[in-house]
Design goal:
With 200 residues, the protein is α+β, with helices and mostly antiparallel strands. The chain is 51% helix and 11% strand. Strands 1-2-4-3 form a four-stranded mixed beta sheet, sandwiched between helices. The termini are far apart.
């Protein structure tokens, strides 16, 4: 097995966080994300797993860590896995395994799993439909959320069911050119974050 390049992992984290800031929060795709980001309660971990079995093990470890951690310190976890499940169909199949593993851990009613992928495609859409971008992240990503946090957010935002439709309209207005420009900005932001400041 080739050694892991820590720079590549850092770059994946930086681009994911740039996407979180510019797309998820910047376009208000998730009205609940801004508060936990500002409070530093989002854990973003990049896995160097190269197969589904290793990724599943990491997911279970991260789920247990989230359960054991005070929500004031960590509210949610983004598990980025750039080296495995780059194919969306395989990623989609893996989600069933992931859900079952969390169920076997006793996470039902406690944690939820959300999914993001560079080639994310909703059912009944074409691959180039810009509305798929609501769930398109720079790298394949598994998102662990606390059920209690979701419940509180829904109570604070009673029209939560409308978010999906609003997001579709947001992406349609942005268009493919706007989405590509946003992605390019995320890559630039990530590169700048990874560049050490020059000495005087």
């Amino acid at each position: 097995m080739a050694p892991t390049d820590p720079t590549a992992l850092d770059s994946a984290a930086a681009e994911t966080l740039a996407w979180l800031d510019k797309a998820v929060i910047g376009l208000n795709l998730c009205p609940f994300a801004r508060a936990v980001r500002v409070k530093g309660q989002i854990r973003c971990v990049v896995s160097d797993a190269t197969d589904a079995e290793a990724l599943l093990s990491t997911l279970c470890s991260e789920a247990q860590l989230l359960r054991d951690t005070d929500p004031a310190l960590c509210e949610t976890t983004l598990l980025v896995h750039p080296k495995v499940l780059g194919d969306f169909a395989q990623y989609n199949d893996f989600l069933d395994l992931a859900e079952e593993a969390l169920f076997q851990m006793g996470c039902d009613g406690e944690l939820q799993l959300a999914s993001f992928h560079p080639d994310y495609q909703f059912a009944d859409t074409e691959a180039d439909d810009v509305t798929n971008a609501t769930n398109r992240s720079p790298y394949p990503t598994l998102h662990l959320l606390r059920e209690a946090s979701i419940d509180r957010a829904v109570q604070a935002f009673p029209d939560a069911e409308a978010i999906y439709e609003v997001n579709l309209r947001t992406m349609e207005l942005l268009g493919q050119a706007g989405w590509q420009a946003l992605q390019a900005q995320c890559r630039r932001d990530a590169a700048e974050a990874a560049t050490p400041p020059s000495s005087a």
